[in-house]
Amino acid sequence: MYITLRDRPKAGEQAPPRSKQKVSSVVVTLGVVSLMTDISSEAVAAILPLYVTAALGLTTIAYGFIDGLMQGASALVRIAGGWAADRGDHPKWVAVAGYGLSMLTRAGLLVASGFAAITALVAVDRVGKGIRTAPRDAMITAASDPAHLGRSFGVHRTLDTIGAALGPLLAFIVLWAIPDGYTTVFVLSLGCAVIGFALLALLVPDTRPRRQAASKTAGAKPAGRPFSWRSVAEPRLRRLLVVSGVLGLLTIGDGFIYLALQSRDGFATQWFPLLYVGTNLAYLALAIPVGRLADRVGRARVLVLGHLALLAAYLCAGAATGVAGLTIAALVLLGVFYAATDGVLAALAGQLADTSVRAAAIGTAQTVVAVSRMISAAAFGFLWYGLGRGPAMLLMAAVLAVAVPACFVALRGLDAARVTTSGAA
To answer: Distances from the Cα of 148 to the Cαs of 113, 282, 289, in angstroms?
Structure first.
């Protein structure tokens, strides 16, 4: 039993013993589902450039188009996935559909042999990812104690990041042992995807957030409040969406930071993939501690101030001369940034939204961030071309330094509303 502000004992009464808070088994199971799915997807992503250009003989222009789909195709369907989960009050089965689509694309890779087929499979896979993300995060929110929501998302993101780190390692081990072993990677990827799908379908309960919320409210109808887009456009959520969009426009892709580090330091290109692993390891170590910190000091504060770590990473990448310490610092700072923003954004959107639109609110926030970051990445490419690596990085850092205090002020008060909102849910 959790002790809330309303559960405080009266004068003279003995307080009940405080038990150690535990993360819901639903959250852990969803984390394992994400772990297996990320092993599957990241193993494929790690070899896709080589497979497309070397095995299939396509050009780098073709791969660039495919990579663009991988980055952006999921963004625009996240709102639809959230809407479907809220409308039917069955987030699990919407998530099952999304994971199922991605699983089917792994089987398709075993027989695909051309640009059109690969492009179609990547698009379907990203659509599946977009469909499942918001319903999954809504299930995490519904299964968690509101006071420890940040920690729940931290646990999930930790397991998810373990999969993101293991996937590329699995792929490169296979290719090291079996030259041209792309088919073996695809088979292993399919196996991991099937395991993740089965865990979700068989072990995760079909929770109905609106029905649960209604059952806790005397006199409420069993179906709970009906879905309404007006609830998604509630003033506090609008503030969060605007701030998330502004900060997203100042968040360039990790690849640009890694390219800046490689361009400056001149290390061999075969070490380039380890930069991704370094950031994932930092994120893995920090996801739970930063999530717990967000629960204590405020999720809006951590979300905005986490961009200071991104600013510092820009400074490390934009420095005129580099040492190994600056490169390592940039990777760690990126890990801090993702730990402070990825799960925390979903937790904050879920905390502010009414139960009837929780998945749609999370999906909308994630879509705003994804689209704004796509625009930022495209614009920064021109900025780098026009100004050069160092000036472009330092300019982004300067603009972000101005934006962070303004966004901090814009979200003032959202953390103060946390207890009231969570209690209502």
So the answer is: 47, 22, 12
Query: The tokens of 334 are what?
Result: 């990126």
The 8-class DSSP code of residue 281 comes to H
Tokens standing for residue 284: 């893995």
300-354 pLDDT per residue, tens: 999 999 999 999 999 998 887 767 788 889 999 999 999 999 888 888 888 887 7
C-alpha–C-alpha distance, residues 129 and 124, integer Å: 9
What are the angstrom distances between the C-alpha of 306 and each of 28, 164, 237? Answer: 25, 21, 19
Q: Report pLDDT digits (tens) over 245-257.
A: 999 999 887 777 8
CA nearest neighbour of 78 among 141, 127, 142: 127
25-206 with 229-425: one CATH topology?
yes
The rounded distance, in Å, linking the Cα atoms of 320 and 267 is: 16
- Closest by CA position to 48, among listed 73, 29, 32, 67: 67
Candidates 1.20.1250.20, 1.10.10.10, 1.10.760.10, 3.90.1150.10; correct CATH number of 229-425? 1.20.1250.20
